[in-house]
UniProtKB/TrEMBL annotation:
Protein name from the UniProt record: Flavodoxin
Entry similarity comment: In the N-terminal section; belongs to the zinc metallo-hydrolase group 3 family.
Organism: Alistipes dispar
MF (Gene Ontology): electron transfer activity; FMN binding; metal ion binding; oxidoreductase activity
Top-level taxonomic group: Bacteria
Length: 396
């Protein structure tokens, strides 16, 4: 079997990106990201998805290494986000007879992005494509996380080409399948990818899981990260819990602070949480923390405590940004508590109360509001807030 052959006639031809610093211009990539693409070889050859345009020549080399001068007959486009579709135009130039397979929404987007309107094959829910010896079928999973998204299913081997579903950040350091890599390295990266990229779409992900969950899957080929075989139960369970927004017992304390006074409240609250028996506590100073890590932790844990100074009669901007991101992700439930500070006219605590009302998160207890500097007088109120939060975290 060739080095890239995952299963007979199915090859990994994706690439690693270790140079882009921010995915979507937003989310950090401390250990890179892979753009996965797969060749399915029957009597005819299909390529499933492409890679980010800047890495197109490497994709073409990888394809050539597997099939030499043979032609690709079909490109199946599961997902149109440009990190997977932006090599389509170059691929078409290289293989002019290539037919592009996608659903109606996909084909419309291919026209809009790449000006391609000919040599296409439109498929819908349950359509099949016979490669001669290998039959692929297509199943729509809209809004995971774009409207045109679909998965490709190869029933004979139980392989689902799942697009971004079940994907992770993190380049593939040598290994391709989960038995060739250390899976532990990827769980936090899967959470971070989910929270940043897919997080808003819990309901469509649940629908997709119900649809795909009915298939006897033995291999998941996502568009980012390892190919899943051994770890499928864990991967599906993680996606299920993330898309139900189910947090594990644990508390995130996220705060902003200019001069350290609100920070001292945060430190006190975290210490009191630990004293009360909470073991999983993650404290983030929002001016410095990586926003993708904060989002990951909020998705992971069931409790969130937020602190903010008043800043020009509003929340401190990094706190405001976090709360907006949480609102955008429609997280239905978290144990929530908040604290804040001001010097002459308070606003931060009021804004956080309004946030909890918009989210329909019933706060665990009343807020702690501090006027001017931190002093020992703040210890008791911080302890009371932490006690109420700890009781909720430990109740499970
Ligand atoms: C640029 C700026 C704007 C501020 N705006 C307000 C305000 O509108 N109302 C208020 O009561 N305090 C205001 N403050 C005072 C801060 O709220 C106060 O310094 C802060 O709560 C102390 O917390 P910290 O030490 O954690 O930064 C402002 C401070 C700065 C530096």
């Amino acid at each position: 079997m060739a080095i890239t052959e995952i299963l007979p006639g199915i090859h990994y031809v994706g690439v690693n990106d270790r140079t882009t610093t921010r995915f979507e211009g937003l989310w950090s990539l401390p250990s890179g990201v892979s753009y996965n693409s797969y060749l399915v070889i029957g009597e005819k050859i299909a390529l499933i998805d492409t890679v980010e345009e800047a890495f197109g020549s490497r994709l073409f080399e990888n394809i050539r290494e597997v099939i030499g001068e043979r032609k690709i007959d079909y490109l199946v486009v599961n997902h149109m986000e440009p990190d997977h579709s932006s090599s389509i135009a170059a691929l078409r130039l290289r293989y002019p007879d290539l037919r592009i397979v996608g659903n109606a929404k996909t084909l419309q987007m291919i026209g809009g992005y790449y000006g391609i309107g000919t040599g296409t094959v439109e498929v819908g829910e349950g359509s099949t494509l016979d490669l001669g010896g290998k039959v692929l079928s297509f199943h729509l999973i809209p809004m995971v996380h774009w409207p045109e998204t679909m998965v490709t299913w190869y029933a004979d081997e139980g392989v689902v080409f799942s697009g971004d579903a079940f994907g992770t950040f993190g380049a593939l350091d040598g290994g391709i399948t989960d038995s060739q890599v250390e899976p532990e390295r990827y769980w936090d990266e899967m959470r971070r990818y989910y929270a940043c990229i897919v997080g808003k779409y819990g309901v469509p992900v649940q629908k997709a899981l119900q649809k795909v969950g009915g298939l006897p899957i033995r291999t998941i080929c996502p568009t980012h990260g390892p190919v899943w075989q051994r770890e499928i139960p864990r991967v599906v369970d993680l996606y299920d819990r993330l898309s139900r927004y189910e947090g594990e017992p644990g508390a995130v304390v996220a705060y902003g602070s200019m001069y350290g006074n609100t920070e001292q409240m945060a430190e006190r609250i975290a210490r009191e949480l630990a004293e009360a028996g909470v073991r999983r506590i993650r404290v983030h100073n929002l001016s410095y923390a990586d926003p993708s890590v904060v989002l990951r932790d909020v998705f992971r844990y069931d409790t969130l405590v937020v602190g903010s100074p008043t800043y020009n009669a509003e929340l401190f901007p990094p706190v405001e940004q976090l709360l907006r991101r949480l609102e955008a992700r429609c997280i239905p439930q978290r144990n929530f508590a908040f604290f804040g500070s001001f010097t002459w006219a308070a606003a931060a605590v009021r804004r956080m109360k309004e946030f909890s009302e918009r989210m329909k998160w019933e706060p665990v207890c009343g807020p702690v509001e501090m006027k001017q500097g931190y002093s020992p007088a703040m210890i008791d109120p911080c302890r009371s807030l932490a006690a109420a939060v700890a009781e909720r975290v430990l109740r499970k």
